[in-house]
């Protein structure tokens, strides 16, 4: 019997194969490659499959599209999700570059995180975005006071807060998220398909921030 879980597992496997192919293609011509991943509740099946892909992971740098400003072992830490799902097996040889620092707030830590990101081999081979039910992607939230800054900034990262977000955040700016050879959107469930259809039918980025990436071009990975 087909279940939503098995469909989501298959989707994760397909995205993992595509991500590995993208990394392998760029590793053939570059000393190091960069992969930008999202956190949240959706990516675990994809990340577990990606972890098993045969690649020269020692030449792969990994960072996040966004992070909650929490301790590295907090259950809501996106870096923790990557450590527990991706950085296992062959992929444990990859280098994870977290988006947090020892500073108390993202506003205080954003400059040191930006310095760290400057050392990475941009443009990324692949950015895998997620999307919330409100159309947010990375930590570009419709109700965030910093949304305009994150959409327009030339900086790599922006500190962001939003009434609807459960923690203070740090997010790659839209410009930095655009700095990639390939983009994919990984979403599951009928509700998100409906939000994506709304996003495709309009153009107000502040209403549904995912719209900032719909013409990247964006490969859409969706399962019920
Ligand atoms: O808060 C976040 O939300 C989005 C979507 O997460 P999901 O739980 O609905 O899959 C995610 O892409 C982002 O990285 C995360 O910080």
What does this molecule look like?
By secondary structure, this protein is an alpha/beta fold. It is 33% helix and 18% strand. The strands form two sheets. A six-stranded parallel beta sheet has the order 4-2-1-5-8-9, sandwiched between helices. A three-stranded antiparallel beta sheet has the order 3-7-6. Helix 1 crosses helix 2 (44-51). The mean pLDDT is 97. Bound molecules: the ligand O=C1O[C@H](COP(=O)(O)O)[C@@H](O)[C@H](O)[C@H]1O. The ligand O=C1O[C@H](COP(=O)(O)O)[C@@H](O)[C@H](O)[C@H]1O is lined by residues 38-42, 65-66, 78, 130-132, 138-139.
Task: Give the arrangement of secondary structure elements.
Layout: H1 4-27, E1 33-37, H2 44-51, E2 60-64, E3 66-68, H3 78-85, E4 95-97, H4 106-118, E5 126-129, H5 147-152, E6 157-160, E7 169-172, H6 174-178, E8 183-188, H7 190-200, E9 218-223
Parallel strand pairs: 1-2, 1-5, 2-4, 5-8, 8-9
Antiparallel strand pairs: 3-7, 6-7
Keywords: Hydrolase
Catalytic activity: 6-phospho-D-glucono-1,5-lactone + H2O = 6-phospho-D-gluconate + H(+)
GO molecular function: 6-phosphogluconolactonase activity
């Amino acid at each position: 019997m087909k279940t939503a879980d098995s469909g989501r597992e298959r989707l994760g496997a397909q995205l993992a194969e595509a991500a590995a192919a993208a990394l392998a293609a760029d590793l053939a011509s570059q000393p190091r490659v960069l992969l930008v991943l999202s956190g949240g509740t959706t990516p675990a099946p994809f990340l577990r499959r990606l972890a098993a892909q045969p690649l020269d992971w020692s030449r792969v740098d990994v960072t996040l599209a966004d992070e909650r400003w929490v301790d590295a072992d907090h259950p809501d830490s996106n870096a923790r999700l990557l450590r527990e799902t991706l950085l296992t097996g062959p992929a444990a040889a990859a280098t994870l570059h977290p988006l947090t620092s020892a500073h108390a707030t993202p506003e205080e830590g954003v400059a040191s995180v930006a310095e760290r990101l400057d050392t990475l081999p941009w443009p990324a081979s692949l950015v895998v975005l997620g999307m919330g039910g409100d159309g947010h992607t990375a930590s570009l939230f419709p109700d965030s006071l910093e949304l305009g800054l994150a959409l327009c900034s030339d900086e790599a990262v922006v500190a962001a807060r939003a009434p609807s977000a459960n923690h203070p955040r740090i997010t790659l700016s839209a410009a930095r998220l655009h700095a990639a050879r390939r983009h994919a959107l990984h979403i599951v469930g009928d509700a998100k398909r409906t939000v994506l259809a709304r996003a495709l039918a309009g153009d107000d980025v502040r209403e549904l921030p995912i719209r900032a990436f719909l013409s990247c071009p964006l490969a859409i990975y969706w399962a019920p």
